[in-house]
Design a protein that fits this description.
Layout (H helix, E strand, L loop, with lengths): L1 E2 L11 E6 L9 H22 L1 H11 L1 E2 L9 H4 L7 H22 L1 H25 L7 E3 L2 H14 L4 E8 L1 E8 H17 L8 H20 L10 H21 L1 E2 L3 E2 L2 H8 L6 H15 L3 H14 L7 H13 L3 H14 L6 H14 L4 H9 L8 H14 L1
Parallel strand pairs: 1-4
Antiparallel strand pairs: 2-5, 3-4, 5-6, 7-8
Length: 406
Amino acid sequence: MTCEGLIAPYNADMLIPLGTDVQRRRPTVITYWLIGANILVAIAMEILSGVDPALAQKVLDRTVLHAGADQFAIWQFFTSAFLHAGLMHLGGNMLFLWVFGSAVEERLGRIPFLLLYLAGAVISGLAQIAATEYHPGFGYGASLGASGAVAAITGSFLVFFPRTSMRVLLFFFLIGIFTIPAWWFIAFAITYDFLLQSLFVDSGVAHAAHLGGYACGIFTSFVLLAFRVIDRQPYDLFSMFRQARRRREFRELTAKQGRDPWMGRVGERDRSRLSRSTPASEAYAERRAEVSATLASGEADKAAAAYIQLLEAYPDAVMSRDAQLQIANVLMASGQHQHAASAYEGFLRRYTTDAESDGIRLLLALINARYLNDPVRAGELLSTIREHRLDDESRATLAELRKELA
């Protein structure tokens, strides 16, 4: 019998997750219920083992996940996900669920989160059965543990919050608490399981179940974002891939045409610079002009909404200096922080040396730190601010943000 522990014997003493910097706005419910249920089952099994070891073994034989058809039952996909082989096994799985579960629960909603957790248990179980069938000498006859379900939640976290940071306790040459990008940690865990599964390393851990859980969480989250079942955010993995593809297409289009729509034809030397600025297309110029006209008519809210639509089609879109700043301020004032951040980022890309650029960097750092859960970007912005160009109030805000990020 194998354990599906996310903290395996090879890395348990190296890197332990402590928490992420995702700020939550709703109370966590399902995550805590699942942790409580797993703990209660562990206590019940421990008591039963002390009172009647034979009965405890019989219950275990009926509830762990069996790969063989003679002992397999559908309910074992779910029951095995609430069984653990000891305190370390239980503690490792519940730690991962506590670290990543709350943020994903808030993003998905409570019932969808529970369904994803249970789907992860099923898919990870199927992956483990398939691995056993493919390589009988390496596979295991029975497995237990919540890590397949927890891996689904971790994979979903990777899709929804790829740019967040997390705190980890490191035991490897150095001992201490460090802050690292969350995707580094998750990518390391996935790579670790993939390598050990590919090399058929007999670690006593169901690595195939982990990989199945990760695949379930990542695929499900991408589908939900693709079909807009879950609102997309500018910094989720789906939107980042989509924007990267569009930027590549715009660069290719600009390089082929060799022209800047506002400066005329340019030489080969300037093409790489233009490919990083604005897309050269008549459709883009027309839609940009519509935003400018709406803003000039005094309908700032409508202009801001039109600018958001422009960004969806052209992620590098930037208006004139004053128009860009006005739209960004309108979005900020209306609480549309993600779109406001995109607008301020566009302003800094185009008007890097503007007299107000340091104040914009400060405001953008504040948005990233307090509203978008992206302290890494906030720190990058703060490090480029020329403090002597700020007024007293802005300097106080700068000092306060530096304290928060520290």
